Amino acid sequence: MITVKLFGITREIVGEPVLTLDDIPTSVGQLIISLKETYPKMGQLNSLLVAVNNEYAPNDQSIHENDEIAVIPPVSGG
Amino acid sequence: MDHIKITPDVINPEQLIDLVKRSSAGAINVFIGTVRNATKEKSVKQLEFEAYEPMALKEMEKIANQAASQWPVEAVAIHHRVGKLAIGDIPVVIAVATPHRLQGFEACQYIIDTLKQTVPIWKKEIFEDGEEWVAAHP
Description:
The structure holds two protein chains of two kinds.
Chain A: E1 2-6, H1 8-14, E2 18-21, H2 28-38, E3 49-52, E4 55-57, E5 69-72
Parallel strand pairs in A: 1-5
Antiparallel strand pairs in A: 1-2, 3-4, 3-5
Chain B: E1 4-7, H1 13-20, E2 27-33, E3 38-39, E4 42-51, H2 53-70, E5 75-81, E6 83-86, E7 92-98, H3 101-118, E8 121-127, E9 130-133
Helix pairs in contact in B: 2-3
């Protein structure tokens, strides 16, 4: 099981600040694919990145049980 | 007070200037972001800022370190505010101290430009008739 933190518009799309997934996706890429399948609106965003343990993670990075995962929609700080 | 900070409180640019003052610096460059009253001709009522704090702080540190590796930076401070901000409020202040001014102008620009691209902070514009997360959709 992993928890995925949601921010900005992704939090509003899901309706919760955190998602719990019973099956751990094998990779960041898999996570993104399955999020877009469950929440098609995520596919309409300009970008959708994933951070693992506070670092941007490439699609081929694998995900482990105790990783801190966050979905990063297009940033707009500053 | 920390050089790199995310805060719900009002940011005072003077505090960042004090943080970066060095006798070895001949220039202190300060960037102050302010909440503008309109976007694409639509009138903005307020902005809401949200951050993934631990990662945002980490990314801001990285940017400060990158700036220091490209320019002779004596000191940097970056403070970003979160929460609800009104027109004219200050969401971000960056202060950079360098020996000479050209390096300071360049380093300061680099820091804000990079912050806007990589730091996990999001702003939502609140209009009279709706709201929108900036840059979320094409």
